[in-house]
Amino acid sequence: MTTDTTSAPNFIRNQIRDEIEAGRTGKIVTRFPPEPNGFLHIGHAKSICLNFGLAEQFGGDCHLRFDDTNPAKEEQAYIDAIKEDVSWLGFEWAGPVRFASDYFDQLYAWAQHLIREGKAYVDDLSPDEIREYRGTLTEPGRPSPYRERSVEENLELLERMRAGEVAEGEKVLRAKIDMASPNINLRDPILYRVRHAHHHQTGDKWKIYPSYDFTHGQSDALEGITHSICTLEFEDHRPLYEWFLENLPVPATPRQIEFARLNLNYTLTSKRKLKLLVDEGIVDGWDDPRLPTISGMRRRGYTPASIRKFCEMIGVTRADGGLVDIAMLYHAIRADLEDNAPRAMAVLKPLKVVLTNVPEGHEEVYEVPGHPARDDLGVRRIPFTRELYIDQDDFMEEPPKKFFRLAPGKEVRLRNSYVIRCDEVIKDAAGEISELRCSVDFDTLGKNPEGRKVKGVIHWVSAAHGVPMEVRLYDNLFTVEQPDRDRDADFLDHLNPESLVVCQAIGEPSLAEVDPESRFQFERVGYFCADRHACRDGKLVFNRTVGLKDSWAKIQKKG
């Protein structure tokens, strides 16, 4: 699988191409370095496509490395899910899966090296005192009273920290850089914290764990990464990234390049907030189809190709482009499924229709293409019988002028079948419509009725052969474009109460046995995916991926 990255702006691709042409770069090596403290989301998908895509385009390698420096928040389940997501998107990492914890011994040795060079020290200040001493954006920091400890004392204290003889929060190891630097990240950043936590890879070997800043660049250097690509929030960390590389005997000097992160409207991509939604039971796990997690999008019916296409469409820039319209994402999946999803008919809100001039036991079977433009998708067999179901929305007792569906005394065509006329409306004791009595014009199969025009076409399902199924209609989880924009407000206040609507529907017989994650266009309704969990449990459940209307395509045409 290759990814076409040439169709949208990508300044990093252009830089690398220039470097290769000028002979400044040989084989490129990138990496995707997730923290295993949650599931990946659509923002990570952009980074995955960028890092793996560049490696593919320029004949290089891309590593998958877990930055596992905080065992208190990490789980094996997250590691497994991340590997599955990367593979599902169609990418292969070079060599084995790597972990920052693979380098803990080397990182500790380098921490000792910095101490011996007089560039690191053990600090006894509390976390609150460290923040106070660090200063502000307008005021320089103050040196810790422990900053000038001797090399011997610092080495001894660090070893005690490692041995578990120091309580959490009692001491930290800090780099000795510049407490007056205008860049707060250079004001003696923390290298190690005491954490008496079991680690999913190293067990109980370590009682101290390195910081992300100390781990990341050195892991890149150990792996021979040439381009360390990250989002713009790490731009202010780049001088620190480079300071470590300059002051340690590293085997390589990778270059950090920042790009603008993805901000999608009506969506949250904060792992902390996504975890809250999961932990509070507001959504059905990390793969809830309303979440922007890759596993949630997969369960909803997105394809790897559609997610890669979306990432190509938005491009890679340094400028913060603001919010990306979620309609672009819907356009990407809709375009994919329009070409590749087989068709089927399903009635989401069934209304019974009795065809009074069709004999009891009568049955016709139509052979209908599985896809109007794809012979390889075969044909479906659709039975036509005396009793049918149509959708409640396709009938109105008192229709407006331009309502071209079914109404009393009006005609409509059943898709792939005859024209029918509504002759009688049956209501229950509560006055609700329970059944329609209609008649068939048997001279209209495959042709128009003589002397009159019938504009409407509706979908339907045989009552005798229809397949009962649950259909879940998913919509945006939030009602506002930026649910966490106002820091003083609770983002949960913006939850969409209609983000999930469940229908007890009826589908055509071809839907009776489908594989998990099978995708279909339900004609006149939208695109749907067989739920990967429910289908394995023997239930027939379809999740709505996206509707048929493409607002982004209309926006593009206007532009």
TrEMBL record:
- Superkingdom of the source species: Bacteria
**What EC number(s) has UniProt assigned to this enzyme?**
6.1.1.18
Q: Which GO terms describe its molecular function?
A: ligase activity
Q: Where is motif 'HIGH' region found? A: 34-44
Q: Where is the short sequence motif 'KMSKS' region located? A: 268-272
Indicate the segments forming the Glutamyl/glutaminyl-tRNA synthetase class Ib anti-codon binding domain, all copies: 341-441
Q: Where does ATP bind?
A: E35, P36, N37, H41, I42, G43, H44, A45, K46, S47, T231, R261, L262
The residues that hold L-glutamine are: D67, Y212
Q: Which UniProt keywords apply?
A: Aminoacyl-tRNA synthetase, ATP-binding, Cytoplasm, Ligase, Nucleotide-binding, Protein biosynthesis
Q: Which reaction does it catalyse?
A: tRNA(Gln) + L-glutamine + ATP = L-glutaminyl-tRNA(Gln) + AMP + diphosphate
Top-level EC class as recorded in UniProt: ligase
Domain Glutamyl/glutaminyl-tRNA synthetase class Ib catalytic, first and last residues per copy: 27-321
Instruction: Provide the tRNA synthetases class I (E and Q) anti-codon binding domain boundaries.
Output: 457-531
- Supply the InterPro entries for this chain: aa-tRNA-synth_I_CS (IPR001412), Gln-tRNA-synth (IPR004514), Gln/Glu-tRNA_Ligase (IPR050132), Gln_tRNA_ligase_bac (IPR022861), Glu/Gln-tRNA-synth (IPR000924), Glu/Gln-tRNA-synth_Ib_cat-dom (IPR020058), Glu/Gln-tRNA-synth_Ib_codon-bd (IPR020059), Glu_tRNA_lig_a-bdl (IPR020061)
Identify the main location. cytoplasm
Record Pfam families: tRNA-synt_1c, tRNA-synt_1c_C, tRNA-synt_1c_C2
Q: Where in the cell is it found?
A: Cytoplasm
Q: How does it assemble?
A: Monomer.
Annotated family: Belongs to the class-I aminoacyl-tRNA synthetase family.
List the HAMAP family.
Gln_tRNA_synth
This chain's protein is named: Glutamine--tRNA ligase
Q: Which organism is it from?
A: Halomonas mongoliensis
As recorded in Swiss-Prot or TrEMBL, the protein's gene is named glnS
